Amino acid sequence: MKHILIVDDDVHIGNLLQEVLEREGYRVSRAYSGTEALLLLGSCTPDMVLLDLMLPGLSGEELLPRIGQIPVIVLSAKADTADKVGLLLGGAVDYVTKPFDLDELLARIQVHLRDRSGLPGQKTLRYRGLVLDADTHTAQAGGRQVRLTRTEYAILRLLLCNPTQVLPKSLMLDRISEDTPDCTDSSLKMHVSNLRKKLRELDARYSVEAVWGIGFRLSVESEAQGE
After folding, report:
1. How far is the C-alpha of 134 from the C-alpha of 19, rounded, in Å?
2. What is the enclosing helix (H) or strand (E) of 45?
3. Domains of the chain
4. What radius of gyration do the chain's Cα atoms show?
5. Which H or E run contains 204?
6. Which residues pair with 132 in a beta bridge?
7. Which residues contact 28 (CB under 8 A, 6 or more apart)?
8. DSSP per-residue codes, 70-133
9. CA distance 172 to 78
10. What DSSP designation does 25 have?
């Protein structure tokens, strides 16, 4: 049973999240301040933390870098792009703006828990019919395949590992730099454009969407058709 820690001083929101998560089969712990959360994390290691920012004691921003390798989804009423980018770069795996849709949040939780438990060492990544092969550096869908360059492969792998997220350009460059040192801030857009063309040749449902002022995300089906 996966264990999720809710860190939120809003009792109503916390109660709602706990009820929904327990109904979905998760074990839930609660902390009502950043300080209390830090004490709990000293004695247990949950599989995920849902973190509010406006907390008594340690704020969410202060707590985040002290959580370690546990995936953190930030739940906040702050909607500014700068806030989102800063927290994603600071270690959060996702950022959900309050008020949020519970079904969407549950989906994001599932995806990030799946990424954490299943991705290390995998030779093949799969998401909604799109398959990425680590050995051949090919993308496959519907019985067709396209060969990717080293940089295109690294970009698509990162997007597939975070299929619901908008990834800031700076974060993408940092994550793929070890495998693709030739990819720079000025060339990233070109590599993404080439990858987008190959995905559309493979299957028109798949694309890479540019999110103005932030970065890129994988888009599928109806989202891809509107680009």
Report:
1. 40
2. none
3. 3-118 (3.40.50.2300), 124-225 (1.10.10.10)
4. 18
5. none
6. 125, 139
7. 3, 4, 5, 6, 17, 18, 21, 22
8. S-EEEEES---HHHHHHHHHTT-SEEEESS--HHHHHHHHHHHHHHHHH-TT-SEEEETTEEEE
9. 23
10. T
Beta bridge partners of 131: 126, 140
- Give the tokens for residue 119: 């991705």
* Dist CA 47 CA 72 (whole Å): 9
Q: How do the pLDDT tens digits run along the chain, 227 residues long?
A: 789 999 999 999 999 999 999 999 999 999 999 999 998 888 788 999 999 999 998 999 999 988 877 899 999 887 677 778 888 877 888 999 888 889 889 988 988 887 655 444 456 778 888 888 888 889 998 888 999 998 899 899 888 877 777 888 888 887 777 667 677 778 888 999 999 999 999 988 899 999 888 889 898 875 434 44
Please, what sign has the CA dihedral across residues 113, 115, 121, 126? positive
The runs of H, that is alpha helices, within the chain are 11-23, 34-41, 60-63, 81-89, 102-118, 150-161, 169-176, 185-202, 222-225
Distance of alpha carbon 132 from alpha carbon 119, whole angstroms: 12
104-113 long-range contacts, Cβ below 8 Å, gap at least 24? Answer: 105/73, 105/75, 106/20, 106/24, 107/164, 108/73, 108/164, 109/4, 109/21, 109/48, 109/50, 109/73, 111/163, 111/164, 112/48, 112/71, 112/73, 113/2, 113/47, 113/48, 113/71
